[in-house]
Amino acid sequence: MKWMESFHALCILFPLIIIIVGVHGSAAKWNKYKKAIDVAVKKYKPCTSNDCSCYQSMLDNDLSTWEEGIRRSDFDAAIDRGTHYQIINHKLYRQTECMFPFRCSGVEHFILELIDKLPDTEMVINVRDYPQAPKWGKPFPIFSFSKVLKENHDIMYPAWTFWEGGPAVWPIYPTGLGRWDEQRIIITKEAAKHPWEKKKNVAFFRGSRTSAERDPLILLSRAEPDLADAQYTKNQAWKSDKDTLGAPPAKEIKLEDHCKYKYLFNFRGVAASFRFKHLFFCKSVVFHVGEDWLEFFYPAMKPWVHYIPVKQDLSDLRELIVFARENDDTVKKIAERGYEFIRDHLRMQDVSCYWQRLIARYTELLTWKPSLNKSLFEVKPKPKNKMEL
Ligand SMILES: *[C@@H]1O[C@H](CO)[C@@H](O)[C@H](O)[C@H]1NC(C)=O
């Protein structure tokens, strides 16, 4: 009788042990990520300033190339790499040509707003996506919105898309994604309809196939639709389903409609992707792929504190999504911290503040006194009422 009872007990206990060990094992599997989060959060010193000084180290870094001053010959080497601007006696001047007029206009918006506070200066602003001053070459001073720290000398400025000139996505952003001040409000409103508990715990992505780097997420979505909903949309170059990885293109989805999902993906495009900052306003967790491409505000945001870092080759993609699902409270906090950072430190006044400091600091480095170049024309502020239309 005794051994029968023990046998029975074993029959009940054994599966129980397996379950306990199993659950414990899968929880232990997440220790590396949980530890990374703990370490990052402990190390992080929240930015408490109410101006743009959170981004000071980026500015220092960008200008460190020019510690000994910018010579006229350095500047001349930059002139045909971008659009030549001057500020003389609180007026803004520009060369006639600008490769992307709406982008120049997006840049000019911020400069004109500050013009009364800006010193006489002269700069070359690159409005292409791609940086222009590779580290392997002789440096020249050029302003670009995005770069790879170890590869480019470019001096970063806040992108034109904070105001206008962003990528036109038909039919959702026919005139181009811009007006960060308006987007902040639009996305916040929509996010309120999708509190964390109601969001789908699915990885979401809609965007074009700028590079094959995004394919693993699309393929994961096709294989395991309960984990990911990721599809390619058309871009201008779209000719057939081949350009959307063998499936018909998906419909474009406005950024605020991404808020229904807990896990939102950010990939680089040609350079850093404009959507990054928008995603945080959903109060979803941002999965940020790769760490090379920067905009001026990226280095103030930290992996695991504000977003989940994903390897460039997406080899940890599936694991990270499962981690997020099984550690809901932990990743919810990442979403909250990311949201709060962007809400508090990437306001329009922070963008203006960065422009002002950038121009002031850069101008101190010029070793000549700029005087009006007669071939430039004056850029006048747009009439207010026209801008509000
Ligand atoms: C004036 O600006 C034009 C256009 O950028 C440039 O080609 C030229 O070198 C400038 N001249 C001087 C004297 O700086």
TrEMBL record:
GO terms for cellular component: endomembrane system. Keywords: Signal, Transferase. Belongs to the glycosyltransferase 90 family. This is Glycosyl transferase CAP10 domain-containing protein. The keyword DNA repair does not apply. Coiled coil: none annotated. Residues 117-369 form the Glycosyl transferase CAP10 domain. The keyword Cell cycle does not apply. Pfam families: Glyco_transf_90. Residues 1-28 form the signal peptide. It comes from the Eukaryota. GO terms for biological process: positive regulation of Notch signaling pathway; protein O-linked glycosylation. One of its GO terms (molecular function) is UDP-glucosyltransferase activity.
